[in-house]
# Entry
Amino acid sequence: MTKPLEEYKNVTWQRTAWLVDQTRADVLSQFRQGDSPSVTVKMATLSIKPGHRYSVPDWETSNRQIADTAGDKRNVSHEVRQEARTLRNETSNKTFWDKSDNSRRLRDRITDLSRWKENLAACAREVDAEMEALTLTKEELERTLAATALPLEVAVECLTLRERRRGTELVNDPVEAELKKEVEVIGGIQRTLQHRISKAFEQICLLQEARHQLTCDIQNKMDALDVDGTSLLLTETSRDISLKPNPMRMLPGFTSPQQWELFSRSNVSRAREEMQASQQLRGDMKLTKAQVLIELQAQHMATDFALRKRAHQLERACDEMAWQLKQTKDEMTELEQDIRGLEEDLVAKTAPLKLVHTRLENRTMRPGADLCRDEVHFGLVEEAQQLEATIRALKEKLAQAQHSLQALQQHQACMGEDLSRKQDALTLEQRSLETRQRLVATAQTELTPSAVVPLANSSGRHALDLL
# Structure
């Protein structure tokens, strides 16, 4: 439909160009002849109108072409109007449904954010409760560790006391072995408890790290909820809307929905893993506490039994030594009496000896044949010999008795010294038992589990207001 119009334009331009060329040629010819160009042109214009003359069929053809072209243009305009109306309807519907879909997506996104925020908040509360429980268990273990200082001090004090024994009482007996073993047991218990406390501290740090991740994630979720909630409330009539430069740009921090969900899941999974490890550690700590208390109590009982047994042995030894000392004293008393009897007998034998000696000496004065060795002479000689033998025997026995008395006196002194050492050792054992009785009374209040009042922020963290 546009081809005749284009042909008409070409013809018109050709005619116009011909007229211009013709006029330019006339003016040049006039200049060559020396005439005034303005007058010549005016005269030519008035006399003969230049241009191509059209016939009536051409004129009619031109009119039809113009009418056809106008119809074509109207048809094109009608189609454009119809297409524009269709486009307006389609774009209006598209815009409405896109806005509706995006609003629905925003609502769904807000629902997902709220759900994950609640999940994270619930997990954070569980982490807080687990940190509180682990902190309380650690504090109980720390009190148990502090309570082992007194048993160790008592055991060392008992060893120091028993080092004051003297002489043969300074023996390496079972009591000393049990006391040294108790010191080793308490040292091992302290190392075990300290190891558990260190593990608990490290686990609390890991829980705090997981809690921090949850807190950051919750805060991000809350900020995202604010942004998406504000975006959902915006409408076409809102005052805060405007055109933005390149709002569809890709930011470096963009993540996919899968990555977003995986991030929150990983935070929750890590927190639950740390809580599970904390629960296992709390169970191990309670078991360790029970085991060390049983081990310490068993060692206390073994040491106390050895001490009581040793004290009983010392008591028996002291009683035996005291009985031996009494018997020795009694024997010495009797021996002293016998010595006095021997001395009296010696003194008593002097007069008969003097008598027999005098008789024998007097009978030596008999004269002549009357100086004979008669029965009287033999009897006196025998009596004198018997008295001298008796005196020698009495002197020997007196010497033996005096030597035995001296030996008894020396042994009595030794037994008295040994009894003194045994009594000192018994006193030290009794003091050790008294010291350990104080330990038992203190252990009943310090080593047994007691009710613990929860401490506010005992793990050193700040509470987060979870909405």
Remarks:
- The chain has a mean pLDDT of 83.
- Helices lie at 3-33, 37-47, 56-147, 149-162, 174-233, 257-363, 375-446.
- Residues 126 and 251 are 35 Å apart (CA to CA).
